[in-house]
Design a protein that fits this description.
Strand content of chain A: under 5%
Shape of chain A: globular
CATH architecture of the largest domain in chain A: Up-down Bundle
Radius of gyration of chain A: 20 Å
Order of helices and strands of chain C: HHH
Shape of chain C: elongated
Number of helices of chain C: 3
Structural class of chain C: mainly alpha
Chains: A mainly alpha (164), B mainly alpha (341), C mainly alpha (106)
CATH superfamily of the largest domain in chain A: NADH-ubiquinone/plastoquinone oxidoreductase chain 6, subunit NuoJ
Number of domains of chain A: 2
Strand content of chain C: under 5%
Structural class of chain A: mainly alpha
Radius of gyration of chain C: 18 Å
Helix content of chain A: over 70%
Oligomer: heterotrimer
Chain lengths: 164, 341, 106
Amino acid sequence: MFGQILFITMALVIVVTSIGVVAVRNPVRSALNLVANFFALAVLYLFLYAQFVAAVQIIVYAGAIMVLFLFTIMLLNLGSPSELSERGDLKRPVTWGLALLFVIVLAGGIFVRLGEAQPTADDLGTVQMVGKFLFTDWVYPFELTSILLLIAIVGAIVMAKRRL
Amino acid sequence: MEELLNNQWIVIPLRIIIVVGFVLAAVPVLTWVERRVLALMQIRKGPNRVGPAGLLQPVADGIKLFFKEDVLPERVDRFIYFLAPAGFLIPVLCAPAVIPWGSDDRLTPIADVNIGILFLLAMTSLTVYGIVLAGWSSNNKYSLLGGLRASAQTISYELAMGLSIISVVLLTGSLSMRDMVLNQQGSLGLLNWHVFRFFPLGLIATGIFLIAMLAETNRAPFDLPEAETELIAGYHTEYSSMKFAMFFMGEYASMVTISAVMVTLFFGGWLSPLPFAPFTWIPGPLWFLMKLGVFIYFFIWVRATLPRLRYDMLMKLGWLRLLPTALVNLFLVAIVLWWQK
Amino acid sequence: MDAVPISWYLILSAFMFAMGVTGVVIKRNPIVIFMCIELMLNAANLAFLAFARQQAQLGAQVAGQVYVILVMAVAAADVAIGLGIIVAIYRLRDTINVDEMNLLKF
């Protein structure tokens, strides 16, 4: 019962904030909506036995990525909403409608086809468990990710530096 | 007594009240200590009029802040302007939830989660939002610059801090703060602490954490977000009354929290430094408190001693000195551990 | 601990994804477009974790979580690059309106 109430609260937060990211004009407020969204998601991750992923979600997304977004918004001084006025044309209502249709179709599909949650070990999402699989079965993807991050670092520096 | 300690409905609120109460009660005391110690170091008198030795000065300050007019500048983003002080204070007060301050596992910590240190990192990295949003919503150039500096600084130093923490995680083999303290227990007393582990590797990790914690709490010599000589007061220029007080409280509370993390990770938490008779009679929480006091004194000492860094020096120190050192240090710790096996 | 059926998570994920797509289509500020891409990635993460709960073997259950961690690493990388690109464009053209980025348009 308590779990359901918590889920519904978090789901409401996610729904409202994901609409907010898109509908709000001010980019700083969009970013704040997204932060709230990630928080609620982290709570849901706990429900799905993913403690480690929930902590990483907050550290990486809320603690680093969104701070980077805010930093860029402030650096380019895009805070004033009038800067990039969104033109009201036919595209907007059509897109909203299509998005709604997408959700309805998917929801229908999900309700028709889906099975139940399987029983699982209590320590499924702990660092020990995730780490064990990350460094055995998934070691090549993991190492590839590190190369990707290295490339990203080099790319970001090349991009941001005026003169190398 | 035993029955009370085993009753969850009493113990859990008690844990929260003790920790949050301690952190909040430490704030006024710390403001007095800081001003007195700074004054002593600069051969001044410091606050000495209100009460004996100026001890009631924090009360007077509190009353003053409480009754001040709450100024709302023109064209601020009202919602975010009100949200920012709370966004700064709340994560700071949440962070100590995983820090154990005694050996009794029924009383402390509030939650001994198996991702303890990650929770702590998450909470400390969230404090930057309060600062950044305060700087942005104030509609003031100086505030904006302060917020920008705070975000860049926090991200930069978080990396070095995280890497030095990872070396402790490697030593312990667990992310739970309680396990980290217990891992430092041993017959050698303070030589078992993580600072002196694999000399000098533990010491280097401690030093990196020490520098990074000054930067993370925006204290001197890394107080660029609120550098008064160039940015008036940085991100909280436009704040007054209780909203300013919340920033103020947050800063001191985060000092307490991060010092507690330092004590827990590297200096043996509640453990006694010398594991024989007269020293082991002193209860663990008292040791914890004493060690905490040393680091809070360190914060004040550094503030009185070192000049503020220039911005480019700050970035250079973070990225070109601390980060590579932390990486190499972590690598060496891993090698020693592997070699020991 | 299973408070609600898995399908609820998936519907939530679908909703987030749809909002992300909507944002990418209708927004003109590339930073907000980027945020919407992050929203879509997070929708995928939620779906990964939810589907992982439907697997019977432990390996498959953990695999879902490993995927999420890999996705997060990729997201961090693309934010670093993307924001770098946006800053570079702003320096070059003094605007970041995506409708004016039409030099390569035929």
